[in-house]
Amino acid sequence: MSSQPEVQVPPTPVKAVRAKKEKVVKEKVVKEKVVKEKVVKEKKEKVVNEEVVSVPVQVEEEVVADEKPVKKARVASLPAKYNKFIQYTYYMIRALNNAELEKTGEELLDEEKFFEAAKVFTEVDVQKEFVEVFLENKGIGKEMRTHLADKKKAEKAAAKQKVADEKAAAKKRVADEKAAAKAEKAAAKKPTKKSSKTAEPVDLVTSLVTLANSTTESVQVTEEEGGVEEEEEEEEMDVKVIEIDGKGYLVDEAGNLYDNSTHLMIGTWDCVTKEITHV
């Protein structure tokens, strides 16, 4: 029997041992991962089956075991930062209307129109944009202060004008009372010889104008008497022509005022107040 030469196996290198160990570990991890995924899948299938059982009989829908349950879409909401302004707008208009209803029984503003203009019940994006316009307005404070200053200025001017009007009215009242008293005094005077000589006022005024325009009396020469006879001098009444507001008038010593054209007495003239008191 022939003997075969003994084969010597070289020792396993360290690197090969490490690679083998790492392979075993990886296989173990993969197995554990597969087991976990299987458990999770079974749980999902159980949940889906339970949801299918809870669905009413009337609904006939095909349920896929692997399909994930559909989540309900979340309704967009206005952030609290903006929502406070919208809520205050709603509160303000309701409060103003309620106060006015208690006071007068009528609404101050149309609520629905105001809510529509203030975007109270519109979409979230519109409400947010509406509030941001206010938040980005950096000059609103200055605008309010200017408005208040203008308001106080107008009130002060109105009060000043009221005082001036009251003073003017009082002054006019005093002047009217003075003119009335003077007219009453002139009317109470007894008629003089000059004013009672003729019966008709028109003839008297005509004679007064004639006397005012003449400076001397005419001398009549009569052939019957053969000499020069001086006319009897008529009684004179002093009048003068004055201009009031661009129009000419006649006025006598008593302040009686006559129309320059018709020679009719139209009233009395107050040289102090420069006013005409019509008869």
Please tell me about this protein's structure.
The protein is of the alpha+beta class. The chain folds into 4 domains: 25-66, no CATH class; 80-137, no CATH class; 143-188; 191-215 and 232-279, no CATH class. Helix content is 53%, strand content 12%. It has 6 helices and 7 strands; from the N terminus they run H-H-H-H-H-H-E-E-E-E-E-E-E. The strands form 2 sheets. The chain has a 5-stranded antiparallel beta sheet. It has a two-stranded antiparallel sheet with strand order 1-2. A hairpin with a 3-residue loop joins strand 4 and strand 5 (256-259). The protein is rod-shaped. The termini are far apart. Residues 51-65, 193-200 and 215-234 have low confidence and may be disordered.
Helix tally?
Answer: 6
The topology string of helices and strands comes to HHHHHHEEEEEEE
Strand arrangement, largest sheet?
3-4-5-6-7
- What Rg, in angstroms, do the CA atoms define? 59 Å
Q: Report low-confidence residues grouped into runs of 5 or more.
A: 51-65, 193-200, 215-234
Task: Please give the domain count.
Answer: 4
What general outline do the C-alpha atoms trace?
rod-shaped
Which percent range describes the beta-strand content? 5-15%
Report the structural category: alpha+beta
Give the proportion of residues in helices.
40-55%
Q: Would you count the extended β strands for me?
A: 7
Average pLDDT metric: 75
Q: What is the terminal separation in angstroms?
A: 179 Å
Task: Describe the main β-sheet briefly.
Answer: 5 strands, antiparallel
